[in-house]
Amino acid sequence: METLWRDLKYGARMLVKSPGFTAVAAIALALGIGANTAIFSVVNAVLIRSLPFRDPDRLVMVWENNRVRGNNRNVISAANYLDWQDQNSVLEQMAAFYDYRGNLTGMAEPEELPIQNVTANFFDLIGVNSAIGRTFTSEEGQRGRNHVIILSNGLWKRRFGGDPGLIGKTIRLSEVDFTVIGVMPPGFDFFVKQGSLTGKHPEAWVPIAFSPNARVRQGRFMSAVAKLKPGVTLAQAQAEMDRIAGNLEEQYKDFNAGWGVNLVPLKTQLVGTIRPALLVLLGAVAFVLLIACANVANLLLARAASREKEIAIRAALGARRSRVIRQLLTEATLLAALGGGLGLLLAMWGVELLLALTPKEIGLTGAGLDYRVLGFTLAASLLTGLMFGLAPALQASRTNLNQSLKEGGRGASSGGRSHRLRGVFVVAEVALALVLLIGSGLMIRSFARLESVDPGFDAKNVLTIRLLLPANKYGQDPQVLGFFRQLVERVQSMPGVLSAGAVSFLPFAGPYAGTLVEIQGRPQPPPGEGLVTGVCVTDGNYFRTMQIPLKRGRLFTDQETSEMRHVVVINEAFARKHFPGEDPLGRRVTIYMKDANEPSEIIGIVGDSKHMSLDGEVEPMSYWPHPELVYSGMTLVVRTQSDPTSIAEPVRSLVLSMDKDQPVADVRTMEELLSESLSRARFSTLLLGIFAGVALLLAAVGIFGIMSYAVSERTHEIGLRMALGAQTRDVVGLVVRQGMLLSLTGIGIGLVTAFALTRLLATLLYEVSTTDPATFVVLSITLAAVAFVACYLPARRATKVDPMVALRYE
Which residues, including other chains, have CB under 8 Å from residue 89's CB and lie 6 or more apart? Predict the structure, then answer.
């Protein structure tokens, strides 16, 4: 222990003695360790840390699986859910839920809230209790007793001032009184984006009370979570549920033909889509750390050459090689610890930056420097010390006493091995940097392609505002139609407004409805193989406001948007898929979302427009005038002459003047919605680009450093060459050739490595090959150019050597 303490003190003195070396090495290590720690904190929060529920490894999502359409995570029907619950023997509990919107009124400012309807056993299943009050009882899952509500901690504090006396009192939600029975703990969240009708994290929970006709097979709109019984594996549970689904398919062929059940671990459901991107980023920062280690190892090798006489004296006095290696490794470990400490400070800032950059859907509220992250930083620092310290220590401990102790000895005995080892490190740096550059280049090209995708409408200068009319206040179709019609007319008359319209499901704001459609005159398809279409409800101005072009036929007339006339407009994808080689205009289709299910005439075909994402396929879509399918929740779209946000407040005031209890929600521009849809791709591309830039900088510094050291070592040789008549270009060529040989070797190895590793990016790229030739060639040339500059600068310095001074010095 005493020997270790002496080694530590001596190592600290040596680092203090060389402040420039220590600072450069510590900063390089801090960049690598800090970046790794920051990204690991995200990986820890998203992928490693257990879900904050009881027995999280036994929790699974239960989806319906449509074998014909290839959708294996479809929302479920209430009837199937109830039968699964009754017939299975592998699930301890099942709970159903679905998201909806409700208007909070009776206070200073009305507000639309995202609410989650859950079965009464939901909180018991996931094992989370309320912070104040209680959760639901089984009796509150019955009709007439379900007017109770649990609030999120954030809503409780934001709208009710954190008043504990709120428990037992009533609040008004969509014109219905609910008794507040509990408040959830801070940070509690259960949000499954897939299947969510709101796309928002819920702020309140209300119990589901199934109606007497809940077992009638109609519609799929719910989600379900279940807990496996102790000892039951996922495979066993899946086999049991497959058997039950098969029986239900036979029993209810018209509804269940082609449908099965799919169990997905809850952890996989919540983080599965972001997992590949995070692992790629973790691999990228690991490469940055390796490059930093190679840089510091080169610095240590250069420093070891200057300490060759010191090490030789220690060996001459009886120090064994293992003792010298231990001392040098101790110094490297101290250096790594210093870099790790600085890296931890950098990571604290980096985590805040990541929280600001990370898309909300990833959910990084729990990201931070917990014990796992601190342990990772400690392990990374120690491992880093060994990685960059071992090779220089082994090299420096191989010393020729006679040569090293000669007066003026230049360390020639170990110079060849040292040069080769430094060259290996430079080659590794260049290869790793090229892999990161190519990966970043592919992501940037992919993101650029994604940004250039035409959504099918003009998003510029369009404001969107969502309104939900409560059924208890607007219970009749004419009331709903009249409200929206009057609102659109009054908004259109505002100064600066070019056009205004309304739609039930706004593009890039969440999912849309989908259902079966039957084409009149065609034979009835077999069960489970019917035609499917997306469904949107619009008014007469929607297409003009969004500038979705009419391709053929016509749009709705004023009469058709005022009363039911059984007409429909379809998109080009609908025509291509359901009317290949036919003219759909004038044909009649029946959509199975209306009670009457009466055939409607196709009067027009509009251009395709993206709805869920820019990289997704355009689905068949049918647009129905508002009287055909009366929706109480519609989104107002307003095209303006200039900045659309300038009319947000006037529109809000207009709505309140029409109904003082009617809130407006989701006030956003279409450009904001498009930007948000790219947030995940932007996040991955930006971070990978930053890491690639750091890698390029470190590689350039590494090449510059080794070439500068090579020039200083060859001062005598260069002076002699110049004394014998060598020209400036000869000296420059000599140095540059040496550096470029190493750089080009690294580029060659990097190309082969990138060719193999970029396949891991396949799921993250859009319309860009993982082996895109242009990216490989351009970035290889770029790295070669940077390497040339890093070689040229020391080469130019070499030409300034005075031959007489160099020869006299030697």
Answer: 240
CB neighbourhood size of 534 (10 A): 22
Which residue has tokens 């592919």? 442
- 């257990």: which residue's tokens? 50
Average pLDDT, the chain: 85
The token pair at 693 is 């830039």
- Rounded to whole angstroms, the Cα distance separating 391 from 395 reads 6
What whole-number distance in Å separates Cα of residue 704 and Cα of residue 235?
A: 57
Give the integer Cα–Cα distance in Å for 695 and 730. 31
pLDDT band per the 50, 70, 90 thresholds, residue 517: confident
Q: Residue 623 pairs with which residues in a beta bridge? A: 536, 569
Q: Decide: 725 and 803 in contact? Cβ < 8 Å.
A: no
Closest alpha carbon to 95 in 135, 65, 61, 71: 61
Q: How do residues 261-313 score in pLDDT, each as one tens digit?
A: 999 999 989 887 788 888 888 888 888 888 888 878 777 776 665 555 555 55
pLDDT, tens only, 737-795: 888 898 999 999 999 999 999 888 888 899 899 999 999 999 999 999 998 988 888 87
List, as one string, the DSSP characters of 492-541.
HTSTTEEEEEEESS-TTSS--EEEEEEETTSPPPPTT--EEEEEEEE-TT
CA dihedral 378, 379, 382, 385 (to 10 degrees): -110
Provide mean pLDDT across the span 241-247. Answer: 95
Dihedral pair phi/psi, residue 210, rounded to 5°: -70, 140
Yes or no: say if 516 and 532 are a contact pair by the CB < 8 Å rule: yes
- 67 DSSP 8-state letter: T
Number of alpha carbons in the 13 Å side-chain half-sphere of residue 429: 35
Model confidence at 196: pLDDT above 80: yes
Which has more confidence, 358 or 759?
Answer: 759
Structure confidence at residue 148 as a pLDDT band (50, 70, 90):
very high
Q: In this structure, how many other beta carbons lie within 10 angstroms of the beta carbon of residue 170?
A: 15
Lowest pLDDT segment from 171-185, 326-340, 660-674, 685-699 = 326-340
SS3 600: strand
What pLDDT is attached to residue 46?
Answer: 78
In our burial notation (b when 16+ CB lie closer than 10 A, e otherwise), range 589-612 reads: bbbebbeeeebbebbbbbbbbbbb
CA dihedral 723, 729, 735, 741 (to 10 degrees): -140
**Of 113, 81, 117, whose CA–CA distance to 99 is shortest?**
117
The kind and range of the H/E element at 671 are helix 670-677
SS3 268: helix
H helix or E strand, kind and range, residue 210: none
Question: Can you read off the two tokens belonging to residue 618?
Answer: 């355009």
Among 37, 761, 655, which Cα is nearest to 345's? 37
Q: Which residues contact 678 (CB under 8 A, 6 or more apart)?
A: 447, 450, 451, 614
Residue whose tokens read 């020639």: 412
Contact 110, 103 (CB under 8 A): yes
| Cα–Cα dist 259/347, whole Å | 48
Closest CA to 747 of 695, 703, 784, 778: 784
Predicted local confidence at residue 363, as pLDDT = 58
Q: Cα–Cα distance between 759 and 766 in angstroms, integer?
A: 13
> Residue 10 has what pLDDT?
62
**What is the C-alpha R_g of the chain?**
34
Tokens of 262: 């799919």
What SS3 class is residue 131?
coil
pLDDT digits (tens, 9 = 90+) for 37-80: 888 888 887 777 788 899 999 999 999 998 877 788 999 999 99
Assign residue 778 a region (left: φ > 0; alpha: ψ between -120 and 50; beta: otherwise): alpha
Residue 421 neighbours by CB under 8 Å, 6+ apart: 301, 391, 392, 395
